[in-house]
Specification:
alpha/beta, 10 helices, binds the ligand O=C(CSCCNC(=O)c1cc(-c2ccc(F)cc2)cc(O)c1O)c1ccc(O)c(O)c1, binds magnesium ion
């Protein structure tokens, strides 16, 4: 009955997933996105790449730009070590409202801080608001034309340190050509492309992993 896609997704989670079981929550969303209604979650295929990069980094403090319904928020939070935190930024209040409920249903709310607002305004406030020195890991999955300005903002605000890993979704589809140029041509990043497919689709997409060199 939910009138918006996020609400219908939440219903699918409440109907098909087990409360407190993060894996069942993102699996229910994947089933919905693949068999009911395409949805812009990072998805199961690119999700495995996200899992492996995240496990390798094992961040104490992670940032996600673009929460949407919280699919990748739950995927990331479930892999965080005790005491580690994920801050996720969402511009759209309707998306944020559903994401909060999906994050709580998965039982990962103690690891996650969801902040509503434009990333460009929130990034400069991260240090003072959350007492952050720098991020260990950043997942970019918001407006594709915000990837470059927000990466530059993270640099300028001193929120990246030697070894911080940036992982960007959709660098092929819808595409973030300026971002690829930026991280691949900059001497301050070591970049690598992980070829995959657009969520629930045969169209090529991929993730770009870029290590900040300081
Ligand atoms: O959508 C937004 C911006 S945030 C989501 C960014 N993510 C994407 O746009 C995104 C898009 C695609 C994709 C879409 C169509 C295709 F044909 C192919 C691919 C895939 C992804 O994995 C993505 O992450 C927003 C809408 C309304 C608001 O009112 C607001 O505030 C925000
Ligand atoms: Mg995406």
């Amino acid at each position: 009955t939910g009138s918006t896609q996020p609400q219908r997704m939440l219903e699918a989670v409440q109907k098909n997933a087990t409360k407190g079981d993060p894996e069942s929550v993102f699996s229910a969303i994947d089933y919905y996105g693949r068999h009911k209604e395409w949805a812009m979650n990072v998805g199961d295929e690119k999700g495995l790449i996200l899992d492996s990069v995240l496990t390798e980094v094992n961040p104490s403090i992670a940032l996600e730009l673009g929460t949407y319904c919280g699919y990748s928020t739950v995927r990331i939070a479930r892999l965080l070590s005790p005491g580690s935190k994920l801050i996720t930024v969402e511009f759209n209040p309707a998306f944020a409202a559903v994401a909060r409920q999906i994050i709580a249903y998965a039982g990962v709310q103690d690891k996650v801080t969801l902040v509503e607002g434009p990333s460009g305004d929130l990034i400069p406030k991260m240090k003072e608001r959350f007492g952050i020195k720098s991020f260990d890991f950043v997942f970019l999955d918001h407006w594709k034309d915000r990837y470059v300005p927000d990466t530059k903002l993270l640099e300028d605000c001193g929120l990246l340190r030697k070894g911080t890993v940036l992982l960007a979704d959709n660098v092929i589809c819808p595409g973030a050509p300026e971002y690829l140029k930026y991280v691949r041509n900059s001497p301050r990043y070591e970049s690598r492309y992980f070829k995959s497919n657009l969520e629930y689709s045969k169209v090529e997409d991929g993730l770009e992993k870029s290590v900040f060199l300081g």
